[in-house]
């Protein structure tokens, strides 16, 4: 197996420094961004030997049939299975944490959409046997009753998505998230599914429980990028995932 790593870039390039790809026989894990530069890197890796250069520079210009104009420096290294396992584990740990409350139709759709994206999901519900038997590798299912008690143990920096089967549960989860925000300020995104009317009702109840307008402003409701009107679970999931990706580098 040959590990190909982007070590340095200049100008317009398809992937950033640190991106890696592994060529193992006829299989490929990861991507450098596609195009002819990746094709050339794969070809070089397949013929990589003890006397081969361990670094190569690729200019994304006419010689590669690409017009990006940038430059990518790539390193080539032979690795074994244990090194590959460590690479993949480190990649998973670098993913942003998300806490998803609700195992219903929208929750399931969101889990499926997030599966290939750079997130680790803690999926929480108060109901027994609500989770499917097969979940993506970066998803951990957690039964919690009462469901809001799970907020205290969430990983620091978690983005929270709230969509339980019950508005009463949703309200309690939001309250616990705001309490944690007040005490620790480590939940950078609190998203609640629902209408503007639902959120107006929640705000009134939360004000009665002592929360300020500044604290309530930390909650995003409705969730999802604007301009997408469909209400099908899969459509909502795409809109929510897009919103999270917009915030990926600020969380």
User: Mean of the pLDDT scores?
Assistant: 91
Tally of structural domains? 2
Number of contiguous helices: 7
Q: Based on helices, strands and strand pairing, what is the structural class?
A: alpha/beta
Strand arrangement across the biggest beta sheet: 8-7-6-9-10-11
What does this structure look like?
The structure is a single chain. With 251 residues, the chain is α/β, with parallel strands linked by helices. The protein has two domains: 2-90, no CATH class; 95-246, NAD(P)-binding Rossmann-like Domain (Rossmann fold). It is 33% helix and 24% strand. It is built from seven helices and eleven strands. It has helices at 35-46, 81-93, 105-114, 167-184, 196-208, 213-216, 233-246, and strands at 2-10, 20-24, 27-30, 55-59, 71-78, 96-101, 119-125, 139-143, 159-162, 189-192, 219-220. The chain has a six-stranded parallel sheet, sandwiched between helices. A five-stranded antiparallel sheet has the order 3-2-1-5-4, with helices on one face. The longest helix has 18 residues, at 167-184. The model has no long low-confidence stretch (mean pLDDT 91).
């Amino acid at each position: 197996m040959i590990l190909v790593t982007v070590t340095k870039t200049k100008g317009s390039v398809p992937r950033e420094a640190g991106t890696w790809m592994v060529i193992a026989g006829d299989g490929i894990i990861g991507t450098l961004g596609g195009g002819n530069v990746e094709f050339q890197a794969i070809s070089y890796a397949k013929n990589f030997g003890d006397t081969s250069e361990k670094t190569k520079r690729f200019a994304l210009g006419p010689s590669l049939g690409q017009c990006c104009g940038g430059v990518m420096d790539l390193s080539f290294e032979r690795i074994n299975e244990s090194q590959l396992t460590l690479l993949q584990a480190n990649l998973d740990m670098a993913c942003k944490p998300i806490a998803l409350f609700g195992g219903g139709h929208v929750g399931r759709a969101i889990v499926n959409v997030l599966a290939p994206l750079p997130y680790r999901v803690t999926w929480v519900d108060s109901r027994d046997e609500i989770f499917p038997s097969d979940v993506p590798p970066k998803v951990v299912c957690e039964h919690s009753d009462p469901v809001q008690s799970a907020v205290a143990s969430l990983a620091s920096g978690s983005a929270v998505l709230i969509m339980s089967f019950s508005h009463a549960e949703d309200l309690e989860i939001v309250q616990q998230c705001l309490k944690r925000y007040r005490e620790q300020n480590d939940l950078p995104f609190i998203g609640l599914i629902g209408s503007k009317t639902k959120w107006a009702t929640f705000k009134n109840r939360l004000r009665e429980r002592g929360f300020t307008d500044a604290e309530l402003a930390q909650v995003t409701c409705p969730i999802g990028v604007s301009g997408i009107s469909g209400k099908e679970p899969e459509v909502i999931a795409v809109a929510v995932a897009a919103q999270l990706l917009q915030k990926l580098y600020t969380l």
